[in-house]
Amino acid sequence: MNKYQIIHDDLVKDILAGKYHEKMLPSDYALMNRYHVARETARKAIAMLVDEGYAMRIKGKGTFVIQHNRYSFPISHVESYRELANRLHLKEHTQLVAIQDAEVPATFDSKAETVVLATEITRVRYLDDEPIIIDRDYVLKAVIPEILALPKSLSLFELFEQQLGLTISHATKTITIEALSIQDKQLMKLPEAGVVVVVRSETFLSDGRTLSYTESRHRADKFKSVEFARRH
Amino acid sequence: MNKYQIIHDDLVKDILAGKYHEKMLPSDYALMNRYHVARETARKAIAMLVDEGYAMRIKGKGTFVIQHNRYSFPISHVESYRELANRLHLKEHTQLVAIQDAEVPATFDSKAETVVLATEITRVRYLDDEPIIIDRDYVLKAVIPEILALPKSLSLFELFEQQLGLTISHATKTITIEALSIQDKQLMKLPEAGVVVVVRSETFLSDGRTLSYTESRHRADKFKSVEFARRH
DNA sequence: CTTATCAACTTGTCTATACATTTCTTTAAA
DNA sequence: TTTAAAGAAATGTATAGACAAGTTGATAAG
Predict the structure, then answer these.
(1) What region, left, alpha or beta, does residue B26 occupy, with left being phi > 0 and alpha being psi -120 to 50 degrees?
(2) Which Pfam families does its entry note (chains A, B) (predicted)?
């Protein structure tokens, strides 16, 4: 592993363990001595912390930990449902509703003139035995011609990355509020009319190709998104 | 201005102008020659682009522009309503509903044992003459003892930064869906029952103090959030 | 014609150094 | 006692160079 990555990971571990609660993080020079690295290497590690929202640097003063309430539902990085449930220690299970070939609906900002072929996977996500989320993935056949089996212990992302050697780079997400569809009511066992929170995303590979489109329909009363934002 | 900042701004301008549409951005060495700077300086400029989601670097290949649809409602950085409306060229105006002293409600994750005194500012935001957002700011009296006048041409953020010399560092945001309150119906002229999208945020200064809490209540049918997320 | 190798170009990591700027404390002068 | 200057410590910016590693295309060998 890289030197700055090691330093970064050490610091994150200590931050999460509360070692720097309300205190200053080691200065550039302190890290230089502790790890016997050049200053730029130490700075790179700290720059990552700042980037992730763990820390804040103030010129002339030092580097300080930013206290987070990281218990809620963060959506500001690419993370799958399963990874998320795992991290928050929620009891989760998934019900496969359907898996079939389909075209990507025009709902996904498609400037595409031609139809895009994909494998459509519809799943219902349960948290604490309540149906909370309907996930519908469109995995492009241009990238993954066929999905042989849905893994029990891996998320789709992890499957693609670990088994198929693909590298996921980034995603764009939009959040809107829409009226409940008939299928929403059925799958989430909601009797009355109402709304769902729809998170639509497009996931990209490192080579720029689109890997998949996903539509996540969340029960509105269970939805909470948390994010961290920096000024400028 | 810094060298890497200049290079960065030049590149952003060119990207937005479409000069690198589907093409490779200048390599490290190309920027070195063009601007007569060291490689690390050029890399810093590009690192900023990557950080902002403008570009993607692939080892051995080059740096590539990420195509964005940046027309929607981005919430992934600290930006005020007015700055936003301006950027998207929307016709906007604001109606001041009330400004008074108040305590910060417990809704804002307050682990605070004592009451926190603040100036409460309630405003209704109109886009294209429709009331879309109710903003309620709680500006802490510990930081700003008194708000003398609400500026017509500046946002609250800009006022604090430019007039009072404060530096805003970051914010945390949560998005939830809640039932319409009576005041929601009145101020947004909504006759029926329904839901609003509530964005609650806490804004921090560079010295770590909390500057303000804000509750933004958005008309659900007009709400759209767009964000960019990177994997790992 | 096919294959293997090499060279050129790219990004990634790391070092060592220099000077600027901000903050805070200590010391010395008035 | 108050004020001013000096110094130490921290982050910010910038340079020059080195080597590693991935990608691509040209070239040479078979």
Answers:
(1) beta
(2) GntR (PF00392), UTRA (PF07702)
Nearest to B220 among A69, A168, A195 (CB): A195
A76/B171 touch (CB, cutoff 8 Å), yes or no: no
Residue A14: per-residue pLDDT = 92
Question: How far, in Å, CA of B67 to CA of A78, rounded?
Answer: 18
Residue A74 · residue A227 · CB < 8 Å:
yes
What residues does each domain of chain B span?
3-65, 81-219
What DSSP element (H or E) covers B1?
Answer: none
- In three-state secondary structure terms, A165 is coil
Sheet holding B92-103, edge to edge: A224-230, B168-179, B195-205, B210-219, B130-140, B117-127, B92-103
* Predicted pLDDT at A226: 63
* Residues 6+ away with beta carbon under 8 Å from B166: B143, B160, B205, B211
Residues whose beta carbon sits under 7 Å from strand D? A 25, 27-30, 39-40, 43, 46, 57-63; B 2-5, 36-41, 44, 58-61
Q: Which nucleotide is nearest to A56 (CA to C1')?
A: D11
Residue at minimum CA to C1' distance from nucleotide C9: B60
Furthest C-alpha separation in chain A: 64
Contacts of B172 in chain A (CB under 8 A): 68-69, 226-229
Q: Please, what CATH class does the domain formed by A3-65 belong to?
A: mainly alpha
Neighbour tally for A113: CB within 10 Å: 5
Predicted TM-score (pTM) above 0.85:
no
Task: Give residue B83's pLDDT.
Answer: 58
Are A173 and B226 in contact (CB < 8 Å)? yes
Torsion of CA B48, B54, B57, B61, to 10 degrees: -130
Helix, strand, coil percentages, rounded to 5, for chain A: 25, 35, 40
Distance CA(A203)–CA(A212), nearest Å, equals 5
Beta-bridged to residue B168, according to DSSP, are: B205
| Model confidence band, residue A113 (pLDDT cutoffs 50, 70, 90) | low
**Model pLDDT for residues B150-182, shown as the tens digit of each residue:** 666 667 777 777 666 677 777 777 788 899 999
Residue A51 has a CB neighbour count (10 Å cut-off) of 14
**Which CATH number is A81-219's, of 3.40.1410.10, 3.40.50.720, 2.60.40.10, 2.160.10.10?**
3.40.1410.10
Q: Helix (H, G, I), strand (E, B), or coil: what is residue B209? A: coil
> What residue ranges in chain B does DSSP mark as E strands?
24-25, 55-58, 62-65, 92-103, 117-127, 130-140, 168-179, 195-205, 210-219, 224-230
More confident residue, A45 or A209: A45
